[in-house]
From TrEMBL:
Residues 195-229 form a coiled coil. The keyword Coiled coil applies. Residues 19-33 have a biased composition (Polar residues). This is Rest-a_0 protein. Residues 185-195, 256-266, 297-306 have a biased composition (Basic and acidic residues). It comes from Fopius arisanus. The keyword Zinc does not apply. Residues 1-33, 173-195, 232-279, 297-321 are annotated as: Disordered. It comes from the Eukaryota. Signal peptide: none annotated.
């Protein structure tokens, strides 16, 4: 190859890098290189080619990694989008349920308001009926006056007996003082002071009796008001029950006696009160504190006595065809059948946690065992309690009604009975 041919041939870019010392001055030609420099350049070229191939391999690996990362990100994005759609559907369902719950609450509130308004209107109508019935029905007014008169007479009788006891004690102390002479002045003074204390106690009892009369009047008025409501509910037209049940099945009871309307005892009126009114009375009577305490004490005594009934009176001692005797405190009444003493009462009622007892047949609640036994005897056995001194056909609803009847109608027989039992 000649110099002219070399000068006419334009070098390639690679040849420029090898042969040209300064590419900006192509006119200056590089001198002829030696073999050693050519070998060095060749080795350097191989090194660069090796590096280039390694770089290409690394680039291919990185490209694959990039594709894998992009594919993973794409899958994750699709998964998140699907989860977002599911959560969006869940949120919409929850919003729908919340809206339904709100509408349900609003409907419940509206229904409560409607029920309260209806209840208030009914209560207003009932109160108006109570006022009209109380003002129009003379029989109820007469019964109310009779009940109050009976209780006042009973309290007055107790007051008179207390006064007689105090006077008798004073006279006895004065007679003892006159018979013993002046040597017992100290003892007489103590007896006189004791008599004065008895007089003070009598005054306290009188004040208590007046207070009880006031409380009794208030309680009776409340009871009569609710009794009128119940009678109006069960017997439209303001007419209450006036007939009596047939008592022909009871042995030893004389049915020939007839009683006028004005001679009805409180037991008759109480026996005609429905169960609903009885429960209302149980709720309202505690307002008269003194009366409730006396009633509770009598029920507790009756409960203690009822536990001793089976030992005090046995059916084996009764004659055939006669009513059984039921001892209560210091007197006795009669039951219509001797099976009263053979019944296992615990099968017919059970105690409750809040106090009292519940009937297993009608779920009626009573505060004591004796009251529950009376309820079962009257309502479920269809039997009754009887007065031992008369053939009164009153439907006594409990043993204590008979006792009240005996103390008020047969007071002389009652004290005679007490004296006879005491002597025995």
């Amino acid at each position: 190859m000649t110099e002219n041919s070399i000068g006419n041939h334009e070098p390639t870019p690679k040849r420029q890098k090898i042969d040209s010392i300064n590419p900006s001055t192509p006119e200056i030609r590089s001198p002829r290189t030696s073999k050693w420099e050519s070998s060095c350049l060749i080795r350097e070229l191989e090194v660069y080619r090796t590096r280039l191939s390694n770089t290409e391999v690394a680039m291919g690996h990185l490209q694959k990694m990039k594709e894998e990362v992009e594919r993973a990100f794409l899958e994750r994005e699709q998964m998140l989008e699907m989860q977002l759609r599911v959560e969006g559907d869940t949120m919409r369902n929850l919003e729908d349920r919340l809206e339904l719950a709100k509408r349900g609450c609003e409907e419940i509130c509206e229904s409560e308001v409607t029920v309260e308004a209806e209840f208030f209107s009914r209560e207003t109508r009932i109160r108006e009926k109570i006022e009209s019935l109380f003002s129009e029905d003379p029989t109820l007014n007469r019964n109310a006056l009779f009940l109050q008169t009976e209780k006042i007479e009973n309290v007055e009788g107790q007051m008179m007996r207390m006064e007689m006891k105090v006077d008798g004690g004073l006279k006895k102390n004065m007679g003892t003082h006159e018979s013993q002479g002046p040597g017992r002045e100290g003892v007489d003074d103590s007896k006189i002071s004791r008599a004065d204390d008895l007089g003070n106690n009598n005054a306290i009892l009188l004040a208590r009796a007046r207070e009880l009369e006031k409380q009794l009047e208030s309680a009776k008025n409340t009871i009569l008001t609710f009794r009128q409501v119940e009678n109006e509910k069960n017997y439209p037209g303001g007419v209450g029950p006036t007939g009596q049940r047939d008592l022909g099945a009871v042995e030893g009871v004389d049915q020939s006696g007839e009683h006028e309307e004005n001679e009805r005892t409180p037991e008759i009126t109480a026996s005609r009160v429905p169960d609903g009114v009885t429960s209302v009375q149980d709720k309202l009577l505690p307002q008269a504190c003194g009366i409730c305490k006396d009633m509770k004490a009598s029920e507790d005594e009756g409960e203690r006595n009822s536990q001793q009934e089976s030992t005090n009176t046995s059916p084996d001692k009764l004659k055939k065809g006669e009513n059984s005797r039921l001892n209560i405190k210091n007197y006795y009444i009669l039951v219509s059948h001797p099976k009263f003493f053979e019944i296992n009462w615990e099968k017919y009622y059970r105690p409750v946690r809040c106090g009292g007892f519940t009937c297993t047949q009608c779920f009626q609640k009573k505060s004591s065992k004796s009251s529950m036994q009376d309820h079962i005897w009257i309502e479920h056995f269809k039997e009754r309690f009887l007065c031992p001194f008369c053939s009164n056909v009153s439907l006594f609803i409990s043993r204590y009604n008979v006792g009240y009847h005996i103390r008020t109608r047969h007071s002389s027989d009652f004290f005679t009975q007490q004296g006879g039992e005491g002597n025995a």
